[in-house]
Amino acid sequence: MSLATLLQLPAFVMLAIAAVCLVLAIAIAAGGRRYRGIAGRRYRSGASAALRALVALVLLALALVAAAGGWMLRGYRVLDNDITVLGVAAHAQGPKHWTVDLSFPDGKSRTVELNGDAFRVEAMVVKWKTPAMLAGAPPLFRLDRLSGRYDDASEEASTTPTVVPLAEHDGWDFLDLSHRYPQWLPQVDTTFGSGAYLPLADGGHYTVSLMRTGALVARTDDMSPPVK
């Protein structure tokens, strides 16, 4: 994975900041620097040690906050342009039963099974209030789930749904925090879900993109057979 791709991952950026703060805290706590007064005189050893300890504690606190932020943002990516978020290849295994190969922008892949006439992909998008946007905070998103969809709603209601989680977390994340404690994240303007679906065809290849507006769009690749 390239550095440019890594920089699109808020979790990587936050963890990198946490690592830098932790290294600086350790170096300062070890007494790697001497502090001088404005007139160039050295502080007495007690004052110097206290100052180093204070700075080290502040850096350690920043490291912990950044690490917690990175953990909460795992699975999110920056939405700064129209981007491809998922590739889908379908293979029929029986009537309305499919094996689906998923390919992600970071090179990872998965094979899952779906039931239905179509596939549906959903994502969650986070947008910021104007002050945060002016400060350079980009919208964020994470893929949420893939599911099978029936053309006949009554048929879908009478069958067991097939749902595949796509979110890269197994506990609290940024959205959970913003929903439960909105006062902690006052610059979050809105969080919303976006979805798109297309009919499945044996040998079909599809591309799912997320627009800058936060809308998911699913397209059939040229190599796909026509849907009957």
How would you characterize this protein structure?
- By secondary structure, this protein is an alpha+beta fold.
- It folds into two domains: 3-72; 77-220, no CATH class.
- Helices cover 30% and strands 33% of the residues.
- The protein has six helices and ten strands, in the order αααβββββαβαβαβββ.
- The protein has helices spanning 3-6, 10-29, 45-72, 130-134, 153-157, 174-180; strands spanning 77-78, 83-94, 97-103, 109-115, 118-128, 140-149, 163-165, 188-199, 205-210, 216-220.
- Strands 1, 5, 6, 7 and 8 form a five-stranded antiparallel sheet that branches. It has a five-stranded antiparallel sheet with strand order 4-3-2-9-10, with no helix packed on it.
- α2 packs antiparallel against α3 (45-72).
- It starts with a helix and ends in an 8-residue tail after the last strand.
- The relative contact order is 0.15.
Globally, the shape reads elongated
Mean of all residue-level pLDDT scores? 81
Beta-strand content: 25-35%
Q: What is the percent of helical residues?
A: 25-40%
The chain-level structural class is alpha+beta
Please report the number of helical segments: 6
Number of domains: 2
Distance between the termini: 38 Å
* Main sheet properties: 5 strands, antiparallel
As a whole number of angstroms, the C-alpha radius of gyration is 24 Å
